[in-house]
Design a protein that fits this description.
The chain contains 7 helices and no strands. The C terminus is likely disordered. Helix content is 55%, strand content 0%. It is mainly α.
Length: 172
């Protein structure tokens, strides 16, 4: 909402996602317009490698943990792989070492789809790896007089704790 309160209400979250949907539309349009020039095997590999390294290992660990905290490394992998900065560096290296090409649009396509369509942004260490309703956030919405958002598909009766238990370390 602002620099002193970096959280979002459901409305600002929707607007934030809309910005990425616009990027997704532009990226998709460029891929369609240049589909005959795209090397599709590298494009598919570039699209998939982000989740193969950055999401799937953490998702498996989270499901196996039964709601207990998982190692911080999974969060770091997710955040590094789902960073526009990281993927921009990958694209720059690809252009330098391989060649500039339309297949590189798979990188922003993946990130824009994650953020715009699914609402997946970088993961804070203090929250579960997968979305679990947080009582504190629901209380905040109550205090602001705002309705609660719909439940996530990952929501369960898990204890809402992330990597770092809030009772042993201050949240930053």
């Amino acid at each position: 909402m602002d620099q002193a309160n970096p959280f979002e209400t459901p409305r600002t979250f929707a607007l934030h996602r809309a910005e990425y949907l616009a990027g997704l539309a532009v990226t998709t349009g460029l891929l369609i317009a240049h589909s005959d020039e795209v090397r599709w095997v590298p494009a598919i590999i570039l699209f998939l490698y982000i989740d193969l390294i950055g999401y799937i290992p953490g998702a498996v660990a989270f499901r196996r943990s039964g709601g207990r905290p998982i190692p911080k490394a999974y969060y770091v992998l997710y955040n590094v792989m789902h960073s526009l900065l990281t993927q921009g560096a990958v694209a720059a290296l690809w252009c330098w070492l391989v060649t500039p090409e339309w297949a590189l649009l798979a990188l922003p396509l993946h990130l824009f789809a994650d953020r715009g369509l699914f609402g997946n942004f970088l993961k804070p260490f203090t929250l579960p790896f997968e979305p679990v309703r947080q009582v504190g956030y629901l209380r905040l919405l109550d205090d602001l007089g705002l309705p609660h958002p719909k439940q996530s598909k990952h929501t369960s009766d898990l204890v809402p704790v992330g990597h770092i238990p809030s009772s042993t370390r201050a949240v930053r």
